Request: fold
Amino acid sequence: MSASLPRWLSSRPPSAALEIDARRVTAVVLGRQGGAHIVSSHATEPLPAGAVEPSLNAINVHDPDALASAIRSVLERVTPRPRRVALVLPDTVAKFSLLRFEKTPAKVQDLDQLIRWQVRKAAPFRIEDAQLAWIPGVMLPGGGREYLVSVVRRDVIESYETACVAAGAQPGIVDLASVNLVNAVLALHAGESAGSDWLLVHVAAGYGTVAVVRGRDVIFFRTRPADRQDDLADLVHQTSMYHEDRLGGGGFARVVLAGASSRGHETADRIRQDLEQRVGSPVEALDFRPTVALRDRIGAGPDVLDALAPSVGVLLRERVA
Reply:
């Protein structure tokens, strides 16, 4: 994984981020205090049921007015009120692929065309109607390389961006939730050895994502709908077996769980215990505070940390990339 992960727009780093999922809108403002990054303010607003239904190949925003109203509400409750934001969307709006090339073109433009040609085969929509992003992954013997590729329908991105603009904010960066949870974990452990594999497990509204990271490179990424707790545990078990059998892994140096607190304390604890049984390793909750502190007046329960983590990840990435 390189210093920055897939994004569709690139500009001067904003100081605020908005995360939108099926349940809520969350705003985070990042500042500095004594030379360190801090979350200076944040706000969350629930969305009406059905207003937003994240999907790869269908309409996502069913009630634009409700979404714009929720965005406006959180923006008015954070200080200073941001005019530019990073926008974090659910993983389910994108299709991820890991592409492997034994030889890669020397010119970036030729590599981009090669990646687009490969993605075209599997995308469930016209690649001409999509926004595509890629980053280099692990180096392969003989000079080849893997690439982590994301593709999203352009009109899906625009539906979220339009709601932001209607609420008075200009989205300067668009990215995905689990991608920036990976960024948050990398920032936490930036000084550690780059040779070990670790696993991220993201429990989100209506889906679960697992990512295996080797050093700073994503070597496995999968998102699935998760209606039951067992769905996520099964996905983690399958990933663990694939990691051992196909990716040359010998266990995970770290297993990080994010988002589980949204299911309630008891359910989150059961999820953690199930995962520990499946992977045979301790599971830790994602706590970004050693890297980005919370201002004293902000509570720091697991639900708050889970709600803020994707936005913290994208904002922190933009400052260290």
